[in-house]
Amino acid sequence: MQLAAKRLRVALVxxxxxxxxxxxxxxxxxxxxAASRELLQALRCWPDAQHATxxxxxxxxxxxGGALRFDASEQAxxxxxxxxxxxxxxxxxxxxxxxxxxxxxxxxxxxxPLTVICEGxxxxxxxxxxxxxxxxxxxxxxxxxxxxxSVAHQQVARQWFSTHQGQGEILAxxxxxxxxxxxxxxxWSLSPERALAMQAALPDVFCQELGAASGQALGGLxxxxxxxxxxxxxxxxxxxxxxxxxGAWVLAGDAxxxxxxxxxxxxxxxxxxxxxxxxxxxxxxxxxxxxxxRLLRTYARERKTALAMVGGTGDAxxxxxxxxxxLLVSARNWGxxxxxxxxxxxxxxxxxxxxxxx
Length: 358
Ligand SMILES: Cc1cc2nc3c(=O)[nH]c(=O)nc-3n(C[C@H](O)[C@H](O)[C@H](O)COP(=O)(O)OP(=O)(O)OC[C@H]3O[C@@H](n4cnc5c(N)ncnc54)[C@H](O)[C@@H]3O)c2cc1C
Description:
CATH class of the domain at 2-51 and 86-136 and 234-322: Alpha Beta
Oligomer: single chain
Strand content: 25-35%
Distance between the termini: 32 Å
Bound molecules: flavin-adenine dinucleotide
CATH architecture of the domain at 2-51 and 86-136 and 234-322: 3-Layer(bba) Sandwich
Number of helices: 10
């Protein structure tokens, strides 16, 4: 994405980028918080009620009786977050581009005072500018798919931490298809071998394993999508902004950082980047260019702080639930239940996850 004065040029030079326009089918649903919703609503890109399901409650189950529960009503909020259908969101974003007279879609790179690099975690332009990406790979893959359940989800997001053959696993079943729906998007963090085995398993076998991992909480399950697998990592670029021969550049979204999907915060962080960058550029004095390094460093500092909060929490949870030491197992289950009863601490954590200041 390139910003030139008030004009925006979006360069789509990646072969996969064309998939967006053709409506490729991503089986995921994103948990988006109130801040992301506000931004997307302002852009008229918030999906309809069937494709953005408000989550009223979140229930987390440990592997030895620990349990944790968050409710929107405790926060006096309409929802903890919204489960947004990815293809529906992407279709709206592509459509919105067509109505922006200040945006020109290019099919080749162009020069501009500021290039915003938002090419995802494997960004080639970031590599071209010689920026190192510090990657911490997790010993798990995420398997995502969709299932129909015989029991309505009741707008509850459910998450189970469990152990399979000595390996920590995390399963999230997230409500889709509106408030009365009974479809769930699932994200299952498994050892790489088991993730590939579950991807290849017959649908009936897959649903049986899924039913066992979710304590049959959603009744009978029917697989209704393909199963996709992602290796898990957290990562951060060593440098978030700089200059090149034709102007300045800055990173945003997964090109700057990735976090464990356990926290459901990757795109929320990316949209936070967009909002923060737009704010810094909008508020600049008239004599500063959009490529002014002072502005870009302000943006980078602010967003690194946001990343440290979110990335650190997801990472800590991953580490705590990956360990199988019996003492730690009982401590974490006790800790979950104690946290669930801790009024102010739980309130603070919920508000952070919802994208509120605190
Ligand atoms: C299983 C799973 C579940 C997740 N769940 C959640 C969730 O619940 N909530 C949440 O907030 N986040 C979630 N995330 C994270 C979220 O998917 C990412 O943070 C988000 O997609 C990052 O968006 P992005 O635009 O920065 O990068 P990407 O989504 O990777 O998009 C980058 C795009 O740029 C294109 N591109 C690359 N190079 C070029 C180029 N040179 N020119 C033009 N285009 C280019 C790519 O083809 C791609 O389409 C999840 C991730 C996973 C793997």
